Amino acid sequence: MSGNAFGNRLTVTLFGESHGAAIGCVIDGLAPGLSFDWDEVRREMKRRAPGQNSMSTPRKEADAFEIVSGYFDDHTTGTPLTAIIRNTNQHSRDYGEMKYKMRPGHADYSGYIKYGGFGDYRGGGHFSGRITAPLVFAGALARQVLRKEGITIGSHILSIGSVKDRPFSPMGETKEVLEGLTHEVLPVLEKDRADVMKKEILSAAGEKDSVGGIIECMAVGIPSGWGDPFFDSVESVLSHLLFSVPAVKGVAFGDGFAMAGARGSEMNDAMRMKDGHVTTTSNHNGGILGGITNGMPIRFTAAIKPTASIGKEQQTVNMSTMTNTSISVGGRHDPCIVPRAVPVIEAVMALGLLMIQEDDSVYGK
Ligand SMILES: Cc1cc2nc3c(=O)[nH]c(=O)nc-3n(C[C@H](O)[C@H](O)[C@H](O)COP(=O)(O)O)c2cc1C
User: Fold this and answer.
1) Which of 42, 64, 109, 216 has the CA that lies 20 to 30 A from 229?
2) Does the beta carbon of 55 lie inside 6 Å of ligand 1?
3) Would you call 216 helix, strand, or coil by DSSP?
4) Strand locations in 131-183, DSSP E?
5) % residues pLDDT > 90 (the chain)
6) pLDDT digits (tens, 9 = 90+) for 20-62
7) Cα 307 to ligand 1 centroid, rounded to whole Å
C-alpha cells in the first residue's frame, strides 16, 4: 500500500495538493447502513479551517465537502465513500519564489528530493496542513460511529509556549467536559489560561515568529480487550496516525516519558473490583497494556512544533542555483498551529479507534 493510504479492514486514502483543483479522501471498509449528521461533520471541519479567530491566518477556506461515492438514500452503501473539498482560495503568487528557496523546518527540501523537483510546491502542495481537512472529515464520521457505542473523545491544549493548562484527570473526564471542549477555539480546562495562551501566540506573531505546544487527548467509554500486541498495538496504530499529522513531533501515552524516572510501585495501576467490574485505582498507563485496552480512559499527549513558515529572516539554500541565500516567508501562515491541530488530533484518535475495532471484529468482538 502506498504511503497515502492507511488501515487494514478500514482504510483511509488522502489525496490532493493545497493549490490543486481539490483535496479529499476515500474511506473504504465502512459498514453499510450507517447514516451521518452532516451538520456535525461541517462543524468539525470548521474547527480546523483557517480564519476562525484573530490568531489564525486571515485566509478563508470554506472546506465545503462533496460526497461523490459510497452514500445513497442517506446511508453508507458499504462501498468506498469518497469526499472531495474543492480548493477555492488559492493565492499561488504568495508562493512563487518558493519553488527553489527551501523553507527551513518545512518539507520543501525533503519533498523536492523525494519527487525529483516535480512536486506541486504551491502552498506546500501535498505537505500542506490543508490536507488535514479530509482527515478531519474521516475522523468526524468515525467519531459519530463510536459515539453510538458510548465512546467520547475530547482534548485540550496542555501548553502553548511556556503557558500551561492543568492536565486531564487520568481517571477520566466526564463526557460533558470532553464534548464541551470541542466548542472552544482555545480549549482549556482552566478557563483563564486561554487569554494568556492567546497573548503568547500574538507575541510570537509580533516578532514575525511562531510558537508550538502540546495537545492532550482522551477517549472515555472504551471497552477492555481492543487491540493487538506488538505491531498493531493500540499505541502503534494511534501513533502511526498521529505522526501522519504534519507538525506532530512527539507522542506519549499515559504518563509517557515521566514513567522512565519513576518506580514500578508508583507507575503500576493497582487493580480492584468495583460494582462487579475490574478497574484500576490510577491510570498511569493511559488505558493500554500490552497494546490492548484495559477499559480505563485512553490518554495521550502530542507535541506540535512551532510553525515552520515565519517572517523572520533565516538562512537557506536555493535549489536552482545551489547557493546559499536567506528567506523571509510571506503569505498566510498561522503563528501557532496548535488550536487548529486540536480537531485533527481528535480525528485521528477516532479514526484509529474505529480501525482497531474493525480489525478486532475478526474475533467476533
Ligand atoms: C492544521 C495544520 C495547519 C498547518 N499550517 C501550516 C502553516 O500555515 N504554515 C506552515 O509552515 N506549516 C503549517 N503546518 C505544518 C506543516 O504542514 C508541517 O510542519 C510540514 O509539512 C513539515 O512536516 P513536519 O513538521 O511534520 O516534519 C500545519 C499543520 C497542521 C496540522
Assistant:
1) 216
2) no
3) strand
4) 152-160, 163-164
5) 85
6) 999 999 999 999 999 999 999 999 999 999 877 667 666 565 6
7) 6
Query: Distance from the CA of 200 to the center of ligand 1, in angstroms?
Result: 19
Q: What's the rounded Cα separation, in Å, for the pair 360 and 223?
A: 12
278-313 pLDDT tens trace: 999 999 999 999 999 999 999 999 999 999 999 999
Task: Answer whether 18 contacts ligand 1 (Cβ < 6 A).
Answer: no
Pocket test for ligand 1, best of 52, 56, 106 (most atoms within 8 A of CB): 106
Closest Cα to atom 19 of ligand 1: 247
Q: What is the amino acid identity at position 213?
A: G
Give the residue among 358, 365, 364 at the shortest CA–CA distance from 146.
Answer: 358
Pick the closest to residue 138 from 361, 350, 357, 358 (CA basis).
350
Q: Which residue has the cell 500500500?
A: 1
Cα(83) to centroid of ligand 1, in Å? 22
Which of the listed residues 109, 334, 336 should we mutate to test ligand 1's pocket, taking the one with most ligand atoms within 8 A of CB? 334
Q: What is the pTM of this model?
A: 0.96
Grid cell digits, residue 139: 475522523
**Tell me: the pLDDT tens digits for 180-219?**
999 999 999 999 999 999 999 999 999 999 999 999 999 9
